[in-house]
Amino acid sequence: MSQRSFETRSGDVKSRNYDAVASFYELLANAYSFGLIRRAKMIEFKYLKPGQRVLYLGVGSGEEAVAAARKGLEVTALDLSSAMIERLRARLARKGLSAELIVGDALLHQPREAYDAVCGNYFFNVFGPADMPLVLRHAIGLVKPGGRLMVADMAPPPGGLRGLLTWSYLKFGLSFFWLLRLASQHPIYDFRLYGEREGLTTEAVRDFGLRKLGMPLYRTVVMRRPETA
Ligand SMILES: C[S@@+](CC[C@H](N)C(=O)[O-])C[C@H]1O[C@@H](n2cnc3c(N)ncnc32)[C@H](O)[C@@H]1O
User: Fold this and answer.
1) How far away, in angstroms, is 59 Cα from ligand 1 center?
2) Which residue's C-alpha comes closest to atom 10 of ligand 1?
3) Using 50, 70 and 90 to split pLDDT, how confident is the model at 162?
4) Cα–Cα distance for residue pair 122/143, rounded to 1 Å
5) Which parts of the chain span the membrane according to its record (predicted)?
6) Is 65 a domain residue?
7) In angstroms, rounded to a whole number, what is the distance separating the alpha carbons of residues 11 and 118?
8) pLDDT tens digits, one per residue of 182-213
């Protein structure tokens, strides 16, 4: 397994706090969402083929990166938190799988070659409205022409009472993260709009939640970079 370190902004508060929750973050997220957070990430495999190069930004302890390595993808996984990357390293080792692991800031990642796909799962929402578009733009720049950017995250709430209930549920989670200083307070982003504004084409939008009640809670957006970038 290759593991190289990367420049970090030492003392970054998000890194320190994610270090503190590394051992239980994924468990908590999946319990809070009744497993929907995981399902929204795993749907991305529908759009990935063995042998493709995939980058996971803000990978956390990386359940989806482990699954990707098991499916024969060439995985690069990056996170600012060394504790998160350490957990992922141990997970991969236990299963005899390999991946390139990077402790570093997503904004500083400059690979030699662009990726077939870049996934930012519950990652872009740690940034406030001033920074998020910059991080998203950088992520798009890491996708090769014709490749995919995939974002699993909170779904933008619909209008009316159902929207209010959805918003309250999602805001409760976001506020909990904000209290722990793991995320900033901000509106729930519509990543499809942000991606299209950057010239991406939307290939698929998959919602997860109380669909029969018209209340999507989590959403995976699959977007493509034009062939001629
Ligand atoms: C909400 S967690 C999501 C983790 C994982 N993708 C998941 O779905 O379980 C956000 C992750 O982004 C990482 N992170 C925050 N700022 C970052 C940055 N500037 N560069 C890379 N990773 C960052 C945190 O350390 C944390 O692991």
Assistant:
1) 6
2) 123
3) confident
4) 18
5) none
6) yes
7) 26
8) 877 788 999 999 999 999 999 999 999 977 67
